[in-house]
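Input structure tokens:
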């Protein structure tokens, strides 16, 4: 192995070390974000759980209320396009 090869290997090593450090920083930031999002999800879940017994809007619903039929001209127009008729 010559001097030139040794320099190339040294530069490659430096690039790999920098890339590794950047990935470690990114990983730490993502782990922090996941932790924050998990905490937020737990909080929102507890808020929802405490609200459900008090909520008057949770009356039993019929399927028509959950999934109203859409008979507008907009929907018929797009359904008639050949792309959607496969």
């Amino acid at each position: 192995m010559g001097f030139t090869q040794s320099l190339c290997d040294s530069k490659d090593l430096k690039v790999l070390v920098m890339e590794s450090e950047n990935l470690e920083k990114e990983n730490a930031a993502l782990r922090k974000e996941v932790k924050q999002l998990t905490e937020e999800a737990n909080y929102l879940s507890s808020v929802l759980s405490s609200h459900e017994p008090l909520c008057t809007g949770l009356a039993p619903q019929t399927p028509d209320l959950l999934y109203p039929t859409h008979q507008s001209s907009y929907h018929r127009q797009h359904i008639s396009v050949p792309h959607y008729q496969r």
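The chain has one domain: 3-85. The first helix runs from residue 3 to 51.
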